[in-house]
Design a protein that fits this description.
Layout (H helix, E strand, L loop, with lengths): L1 E5 L7 H10 L8 E6 L6 H6 L3 E4 L6 H14 L4 E4 L2 H11 L5 E6 L9 H10 L2 E4 L2 H10 L8 E3 L22 E6 L8 H13 L4 E6 L7 H13 L6 E5 L4 H6 L3 E4 L8 H8 L4 E4 L2 H6 L7 E3 L4 H13 L1 H18 L2 H16 L1
Parallel strand pairs: 1-2, 1-4, 2-3, 4-5, 5-6, 6-7, 8-9, 8-11, 9-10, 11-12, 12-13
Helix pairs in contact: 3-4, 7-8, 7-12
């Protein structure tokens, strides 16, 4: 059974990073995985280094010619399943699969497609052999729309992480004077780094000695949030306490040097960075958005605070400051459980079960 993970550009995103971790397990996969894509990106070399088959079919001038080349590639390489990771690629996969016997699986990684035109949603839901969601909350949102009654086609497969690249225990000392804190995530509509900036002002006012690192790039078309955070920190004298590190490729190493991880979301559909932080044995604080409650088992593996409420975050963080040993013990226990539930091996096994179900 040969499965093509279907992408546009091989840039660093959640779906692409997830596929990279799958490809890295090529020798133990219960199916044959190939990477089918249109454009190179920052992950191209890393994906090629996994020895996965890289099938590049670029779109040059004509979409029609692209479809013809793509169908030819699918037949030539005996692809059994096209696994699309975006709505655009789902449409392309469905059209290219007609009269070929190739199955189409579409994974939705976010809530954005809920706002797509109804006809487009109908086409993808009807044309896909299976629809995968990365969380129960994301699936619930689509089911509640009630458009097409296709619940039987839907499945939930949580994202998986290759924990081999993460140290199990952070190499920090609990008695150093300056707290090292961080958040990992790009600056965009789905996150709320400004809430954390407001919280950091409260920490500074309380004379807590800390340094906070924002890891993540500012999206070119969504600079407002990044600029607002930089301006806020400048206006409230936080420049010496905050670093905007931009895009970093050594997140596991960064997490290993931190004392705590603080995250704020508006509508994440999963939360890879949160799981990575918990798996790194870091005391983790995240707002009580429905998806975060799901992936942390209602706060069993992290400390929840009220969404968009910096005072609530300060309250739970003060408890952390007063009971750091207790929080660290909880973090160590949570890391063990999270590594089992969200391992890349568990993710691969779930995918294999779905692939097998549509290929028979």
């Amino acid at each position: 059974m040969k499965v093509a993970f279907f992408f546009g550009a091989l840039n660093r995103g959640g779906a692409e990073t997830l596929a990279l971790d799958v490809f890295a397990r090529k020798a133990e996969l219960p199916f044959e995985a190939v990477c089918l894509y249109r454009k190179e990106g920052v992950l191209s070399q890393q994906m090629a280094a996994t020895s996965a088959d890289m099938l590049k079919v670029p779109r040059k001038k004509s979409w029609l010619l692209y479809f013809c080349r793509l169908r030819k590639t699918i037949r030539k390489h005996h692809i059994d399943i096209l696994h699309a990771q975006t709505s655009l690629n789902a449409i392309i996969a469905i059209l290219c699969s007609w009269f070929t016997g190739v199955k189409v699986i579409t994974t939705f990684h976010g809530f954005g497609f809920l706002n797509a035109p109804k006809l487009l949603r109908w086409f993808i839901f009807k044309g896909s052999d299976r629809i995968i969601f990365v969380s129960q909350q994301l699936k619930k949102a689509f089911v509640e729309r009630g458009d097409f009654g296709l619940d039987a086609k839907m499945a939930v497969v949580h994202n998986g992480i290759n924990f081999d690249k993460f140290q199990h225990t952070p190499n920090h000392t609990s008695n150093r004077s300056t707290l090292a804190l961080c958040m990992v995530g790009s600056f965009g509509d789905g996150r709320n780094q400004l809430l954390i900036c407001r919280f950091l002002k409260l920490l500074k006012d309380a004379q807590v000695d800390f340094h906070f690192t924002f890891v993540g790039a500012a999206r070119p078309n969504e600079m407002e949030l990044y600029n607002a955070c930089v301006d806020y920190c400048s206006a409230h004298g936080l420049e010496q306490h905050v670093t905007f590190a931009g895009l970093c490729h050594n997140v596991p190493q960064i997490l290993s040097t931190m004392d705590a991880f603080i995250y704020s979301t508006r509508h994440d559909s999963f939360g890879l960075a949160v799981i990575e932080a918990i798996a790194s044995s870091l005391p983790t604080f995240v707002n009580d958005w429905c998806t975060m409650k799901e992936i942390t088992r209602d706060g069993k593996w992290a400390t929840l605070y009220k969404t968009d409420d910096e005072q609530s975050l300060l309250q739970v963080f003060n408890d952390f400051l007063a009971n750091r040993d207790t929080y660290q013990q909880k973090a160590l226990a949570s890391a063990n459980e999270v590594r089992q539930v969200y391992s890349i091996q568990h993710h691969i096994a779930s995918l294999a079960q779905i692939y097998s179900s549509v290929s028979h």
